[in-house]
Structures are given as C-alpha cells and as structure tokens.
C-alpha cells in the first residue's frame, strides 16, 4: 500500500531549514479545502470558512516574519456567487470580522492591506470593512497582504484589454507600443510592482489546477500543491512549501547558470 504514497507532498516534511536569502518575494495562495475540512468533522461549511480565516491571520504573521514582501490570498472568486446564499452571506461578513479583530495586529506587524478584484460589486458593509482595513494600514510599509476578492483572471484581462484599447482610441498609445509592460500596467497587480508576479503559487487541499487565478502573472511562478486543507495549514506547512520552492532551479525560459 505504501507504493501509493510515492507523490511527495511538501507538507510531509518536518520543520525545515530555509535559505533566508531566497525567500520568495511574492507568494500567492489558493486557499482550498475549507468545506472539505468542515465536512470531515461533520460541521457546516461555514465552520470551515471561520477556521480558514484564523489560518489567514496565522499565515499573514508567519509570512511577514519570514520577510515575504507580498502575500496574495484568493478569498472569493467571480464564480463563488454560485454557492448557496447562506454561504455567500457568511463569506461576505468575514472581512467585517477580520477588520474588527485583526487590524491592530496588522499595524503592529507593519502589514499593509490591499485588495484586487471587482470590490464595487460586494455588499456595502463588506466594502466598508475592506476600505477601512486599507485606510488604517496605508502607512504600514512592511509586507503587503493582498486579498483577491470577487476576482477572476479572465475578467481582469478583459478589463485590462479594454483599458489599453481606450488609451489607443484616445491617442495616448499606438498599437505597436503595446508590450509586456503595457499589459502589466493594465492589470490589477500593477500596484504591487516590483513584485507584481508571484514567485511561488501554493494551492492547498489536493487540487492541481489554476482556477482562473493570476493567469498572466504566474507565467514563470513555481507551483506547489499540497494535500493539506487550508484550515490545517500552519507556519510549518508554509516553510515546507518555501523549502520545495528553494529546491527548484528557476530558469525563466533560459538555461541554468550553475550547470
Ligand atoms: C473564506 C479561507 C479574510 C477562504 C479564508 C469575502 C475563504 C477565509 C478575508 C478578508 C475569507 C478579505 C478582505 C479584507 C479582509 C479580510 C476574507 C473572504 C473570505 C471573502 F479586507 N478571510 N476571508 N474574505 N475566507
């Protein structure tokens, strides 16, 4: 039976030694498995989301302590509206509860909150909590905690293409001037520069797909998949994922310079 355990999971490693000079500057996380975590405990899905928010707090501090510059968390996708109304309503008050309980800790740790996505489509109370978190942490110049809220990568790219087309129509840009930099600047990650692109993308809970997250930005990211469900994810799991990242040879389309 042990032959089935041949796939190595970064989370299987115990506390690991990290190269502190090669901490990924931008880590993005698809926080999957909250519902599954709850189901396995015979709890309602919202109990998983509640525990998931506690994990967000712990991992934010752990990432900040490790010297990460940007932590992007996929909190709500443009597809998540298809979930039951009760669950969507519960999710929408999580930023309120996060703001009420966690902003002092963010400030203490010098963490700045940013948000990307179609925030104007969220309920007013959610928008207020998000805007308050952004406002109260705007002078923090440590790690950026960037929530993807009502975000989808294709929608982001469509909006970006519209912006660029408008610049051309207005005569601010010619067609042949459009390049990588133009596209970068038109996407929702532009404000994260020079860390717009994640170095490491982590997806929890065993699924190995991108699900419409940061498709332009992860062109050269290292992808780490772990079976650990988001509510069970700890600082040790994060370190194990970073150790996996550090074990890889990043080439950006070129060849290794150490071979
Ligand atoms: C549920 C697990 C923090 C994944 C984490 C509205 C899904 C907990 C926030 C949050 C969610 C967002 C913006 C902000 C402050 C906090 C959050 C949602 C879901 C969707 F400014 N956790 N969290 N937002 N979950």
Please give a structural write-up.
By secondary structure, the chain is of the alpha/beta class. It has one domain: Undecaprenyl pyrophosphate synthetase. The protein has seven helices and six strands. It has a six-stranded parallel β-sheet, sandwiched between helices. α5 packs across α6. The model has no long low-confidence stretch (mean pLDDT 94). Residues 31, 34, 49, 52-53, 56, 75-76, 91-92, 94-95, 98, 113, 115, 130, 133, 147, 149, 230 line the site of ligand V0D.
Short summary of the structure?
The protein is of the alpha/beta class. The protein is built from 7 helices and 6 strands; from the N terminus they run βααβαβαβααββα.
Strand content: 5-15%
Arithmetic mean pLDDT: 94
Q: What general form does the structure show?
A: globular
Order of adjacent strands in the largest pleated sheet: 3-4-2-1-5-6
- Which distinct ligands sit in these coordinates? ligand V0D
Q: What is the ordering of alpha helices and beta strands?
A: EHHEHEHEHHEEH
* Helical segment count: 7
Structural class: alpha/beta
Second rung of CATH, namely the architecture: 3-Layer(aba) Sandwich
The biggest beta sheet reads:
6 strands, parallel
Task: Describe the SSE topology.
Blueprint: E1 26-30, H1 34-40, H2 45-66, E2 70-77, H3 85-108, E3 112-116, H4 124-136, E4 144-151, H5 153-169, H6 180-186, E5 200-203, E6 222-225, H7 235-246
Parallel strand pairs: 1-2, 1-5, 2-4, 3-4, 5-6
Helix pairs in contact: 1-2, 2-3, 3-4, 5-6
The protein binds ligand V0D.
Residues 31, 34, 49, 52-53, 56, 75-76, 91-92, 94-95, 98, 113, 115, 130, 133, 147, 149, 230 line the site of ligand V0D.
